[in-house]
Design brief:
single chain; alpha+beta; Aminopeptidase; 6-stranded mixed sheet; 5 helices; globular; binds coenzyme A
Amino acid sequence: MTEQDVPAVSRLLGQSWRHTYSPILGAETTARLSDEKHAPERLAAELGDDNKMSFVAERADGSIAGYAMAAMNDQGEVMLERLHVDKSEFGTGLAADLLHAVLAAHAGIPSLALEVIEGNDRAIAFYRRHGFEVVERRAAAHGVGGHPSLIMRRLLPRA
Ligand SMILES: CC(C)(COP(=O)(O)OP(=O)(O)OC[C@H]1O[C@@H](n2cnc3c(N)ncnc32)[C@H](O)[C@@H]1OP(=O)(O)O)[C@@H](O)C(=O)NCCC(=O)NCCS
């Protein structure tokens, strides 16, 4: 991902969050959280952060069809912080391609973890099918937007 991709990624995240989380968190909370977290200047700053890696999937015409971001947390564990594909790409395998790109870029790590909001059943089913298991449930106070979330982890084979 480059700085040129930032506006399109910000739009993709705004749409994806509203579509996915409005039914779970409510439209107002979802819009507020997304506008904060996905402001173009925040996404641009992340590109300069050595602990974060951002990925985009581009269509032949250069438009952005999907986006992922992985970050190293304070414990040295790599977290898949975001994985979003345009709704028109659901079920096409693009999300799996992005996940594989993230894994390939982090070859040698023992595991990949992520946090997903409870009720996001499509994402949870996707992650389960790709080898992630629920390892923790965060109560409302610690979850996103005051809603409980799940921590899922996939152990990776040692080379
Ligand atoms: C999560 C995401 C990246 C997955 O990509 P995708 O292309 O939709 O995933 P797939 O179609 O390959 O897999 C989705 C699975 O969920 C299943 N599914 C769909 N709707 C479901 C529902 N309401 N409840 C349970 N399972 C559901 C599908 O059948 C499929 O499982 P299967 O392949 O075993 O049949 C994509 O849906 C997305 O961008 N969602 C919005 C953003 C998001 O939620 N990101 C994750 C944040 S942690």
